[in-house]
């Protein structure tokens, strides 16, 4: 059912909030511990300062960007988000279709409900694959080979999640993976019947409670248990040696996601990594982590000549994208913003969000006197 289009991401968020069970909405929307990172993210992006150029012909504005040798109509990538498949039925396929419709890559999460093979087969999207390293490096290598066989162009190694984040609201609201039946979760579902009927009940009818699609079968069937098995617990000892091994094993583009320091970016460059995402994981992991707006330029100045620098965290407006691009990023990932769109209208909702951000970006570029994305450089004041 088509709904009146959201005017902005804040409206899309309100709709997602109404649609989703509280536990799931909070899992998507909130941060970690005292959530200072969420507040900092808003302040950092609200504090962006533009220095517009005037008297520039902006009658033809173009947001086309070349990322890793491929032209795409907008400088965006759909970020990897665990369990997007719970937000909408087949949510990962829907997100990938939205990305394909606007010509940008979709990054599949290790913790996706739908497998990379199915997403590749059903969406026609250009895929990147996000990797969490499991304790068993052999199992991890097998997962990487799966991503390669499915045609993923880039492997995105997430490096900012060495330990499990502390998200207390999810303890209180009962949301977690594995999904556990509880009175609270049951009431939450009943209070959100459109989601329950359109997503969860549909999964139950079509094969059962959703699980992590990339986990080996013998563990997937056991996802009802808390201990998913030592071998596929997330490794806490991931180091530069793993980056080296992945660089040797992976022929496509290799990207490190979650870099916040220029010295780490330098090491990545030395190891032949193709790209980095300057990200604080949307303020979901380490509370008080520095916001990308504050460290992006240092990092881009240090490695931008050798490595493609991307950024994410907190983007809710096209002007935020312009801010990141002006501070040195070549592309920007969107996490929650597209999930809000997905929650209300599947692929169409996610696509509407991507197009909205592009429209807003083009408007900002018009005011900045920046007919192309490259022209944005020099119009954003470096945060002090
Ligand atoms: C619900 C949710 C799940 C996420 N899951 C993953 C994940 O599995 N792997 C990963 O590298 N990042 C994950 N992220 C982080 C995003 O890739 C991205 O860095 C972040 O969402 C950017 O901030 P934004 O949501 O404010 O745009 C997740 C984010 C959200 C909101």
UniProtKB/TrEMBL annotation:
Entry-linked PROSITE patterns: FMN_HYDROXY_ACID_DH_2
GO (cellular component) term, any one: plasma membrane
Protein family membership: Belongs to the FMN-dependent alpha-hydroxy acid dehydrogenase family.
Pfam families: FMN_dh
The organism of origin for this protein: Azospirillum baldaniorum
GO molecular function, one term: FMN binding
InterPro entries given in the database record: Aldolase_TIM, Alpha-hydoxy_acid_DH_FMN, FMN-dep_DH, FMN_HAD
Organism lineage string: Bacteria, Pseudomonadati, Pseudomonadota, Alphaproteobacteria, Rhodospirillales
Cofactor(s) this protein requires: FMN
Keyword vocabulary terms for this entry: Flavoprotein, FMN, Oxidoreductase, Plasmid
Listed name of the protein: L-lactate dehydrogenase [cytochrome]
